[in-house]
């Protein structure tokens, strides 16, 4: 999901729970082993950038709440990302082009209305329709008729309001026709934009934004901007990922360090990532003991070099910068061994990963870097932009210093105060230099590391990269029905991208999170989310 | 450091009495047989004070550090070498290295300039605005005086840190990356805007007393213009308490700079200042305390030196207290 979830954490206000149980009479110390079903869990959060609509949430801050509010057709196993049916009863296809989807009956939205096929179809049409300007609109691009509702090109007006590929068959069944065979579709529908929306949304979108109604395990209670998003267990929830506590507080922090102090002090219950300072000398292990969580993350950190910045449309400069970053040393020191260097845009652990895709340029080589830099003829100053909170500043300042040292060019880290402000700059194509461009997978597929980032005009194409050959190769891969063949085609596209260096791969994070002493169990997913259904509050 | 204005609180009363004493100074020196002015009297007093000498030496060193940092170190404060990641103090780097492999000693030396500049300009501006408004208020009609005093109270009433946060975040939207000069100017202006009422009150009460002295009345009787009275008769006799305040405030403002930088709204990298260094080191305190302790020590010693100097000067300028 998107850009940098690195900053999310879940925590549970244990103090409250303890106080309540203490009031209960004092002697009831040994309650059920399942934990306190009425407990409160507080998790680390960052301020959402936009409203909490599923198709408009592509960043970590908002998706934390949206994930819990909406249940999609399928869910992912926390460990490896294998899909299982949630709202879907069955998903069948003969040719990977036409999918027939049946829903489970009796599932309800938080307002009591039933989840029907039309809720999915309407929500998807809303998300794709260009005038609605939903951030994740391009995720529907595989569906037939997408080009009519969201035509490419500046100022093009849509010729239809609904995608022709979506067809409601019955109350609990609908059919999806894609533009061509697309085998990743069954994973893709687990992503947030594919959530259903209740009739109440279409009746009054404004009121809905203030108080979203979903079909997920938690329902919306209240939101205090920059402070708190409060959710509560939805009693009628039918899915197997129901939660075992009552209230979820997503506490908004501007600094990971503060949140970490709260985590250690028991004022916050879960963080899906720990600040760099906690990892120095394995401090977190001393602080949290066996309450440290690990996960394989499907994410990657890159530094985007936007083509629209004057002087940056220069392959030699890109090569020079890629060669000038000492990934080994930075991951070992500033990042305290919590990251590992990467040599491509697809991280290890993804099916279709190939080592050394960017081997020629993504290894530190000061001499070669300087050669390319001289050849590029670039003059002026380099900057790396990012949000400065959440432990973002230190590694990028180190990268800048590495570039400065190798190329002899002035380089400066430029911080925005928070992630929302930073993404506004990036999405508005207002970068004036290099930019942090991290990605964590929405679903575990090589496709998700290429299409949303490198296709012309894609939702997270931070570099504004456009190469017709890459677009064509990706389109070819998307339409390949056979999964293995498709992966091979994506690998070809990956290699094409490596020739252009639209962004510079730097490192990938090892997932390290932690929970407070108020919880007896918690789990970290490959998407670096808390698996809420695995949380248990101590009785 | 919560409120750099607080240090001036007691000075207001002292100012009135100090000015009141001025008229007697000549009498007392006549008794000693050698006519001495207030200033030479104070100087004689100060010369014999060890605290004065010590603080002056410290301040001199800091000023030299700010003006010619290369005298103290040949290391570039922005030269990073990750081979030295968080290395503790050694013979090569007396204060050790920080998380980016910067030399902490070099940065502490180069940091003096920004910190001192902020302190100096803020003090200048505070004293200038405060004195002008203070003299004008006490010399003008009483309703003008009340108006200006209440106006000053508005600024004095705003808690310093809160006021500075409001000012600095209003002028820098989160998406902007203001230049070093702009940030320094803004920090200086916000400190001055929030602190000038203190020096205004001191100047005002000093002037109110001085205005009643016979020599002022005589000058007025002789038909001197208000401007001449202010510059020839009032200012030389009211400047002492403000000067004392300025000395103490300079130290306080250096502390204020560190506070604002720590909060992330004051000076920020790539500017090197003590506050910026402290702000960068807070996350690593447990792993590398030297990153924090050295810049914090520089701030403490410098602030202390100015406060001691201010104290000594006040004692010297207030003959009654002897």
UniProtKB/TrEMBL annotation, chain A:
A GO term for molecular function: peptide transmembrane transporter activity
Alphabetical list of Gene3D superfamilies matching this protein: Dipeptide-binding Protein, Domain 1, Dipeptide-binding Protein, Domain 3, Periplasmic binding protein-like II
Query: Span of the secretion signal?
Result: 1-24
Judging by the UniProt lineage, the source's domain of life is: Bacteria
Answer yes or no on keyword Signal.
yes
Q: Give the GO terms filed under biological process for this record.
A: peptide transport
User: Keywords in UniProt for this one?
Assistant: Signal
- Tell me where in this chain the Solute-binding protein family domain is found: 87-460
Q: Is Signal one of the keywords UniProt gives this record?
A: yes
A Pfam family of the record is: SBP_bac_5
Gene Ontology CC, one term: ATP-binding cassette (ABC) transporter complex
| Protein name in UniProt | ABC transporter substrate-binding protein
Question: What species is this protein from?
Answer: Umezawaea endophytica
TrEMBL record, chain B:
Localization per record = Cell membrane
Transmembrane regions: 52-72, 116-139, 151-171, 183-203, 242-267, 287-313
Q: Which ranges carry the ABC transmembrane type-1 domain?
A: 112-310
- Offer one example of a GO biological process linked to this entry: transmembrane transport
List the Pfam families hit by this protein, alphabetically: BPD_transp_1, OppC_N
Q: Does the keyword Transmembrane apply?
A: yes
Keywords carried by this UniProt record: Cell membrane, Membrane, Transmembrane, Transmembrane helix, Transport
User: Which coarse location class describes where this protein primarily resides?
Assistant: membrane
The keyword Transmembrane is annotated on this UniProt entry: yes
Question: Per its UniProt entry, which superkingdom is the organism in?
Answer: Bacteria
What does the record say about its membrane topology?
Multi-pass membrane protein
Q: Name one GO cellular component term.
A: plasma membrane
| Protein family (similarity comment) | Belongs to the binding-protein-dependent transport system permease family.
Q: Which PANTHER family match?
A: ABC TRANSPORTER PERMEASE PROTEIN, OLIGOPEPTIDE TRANSPORT SYSTEM PERMEASE PROTEIN APPC
Q: What is this protein called?
A: ABC transporter permease
Q: Which species is this record about? A: Umezawaea endophytica
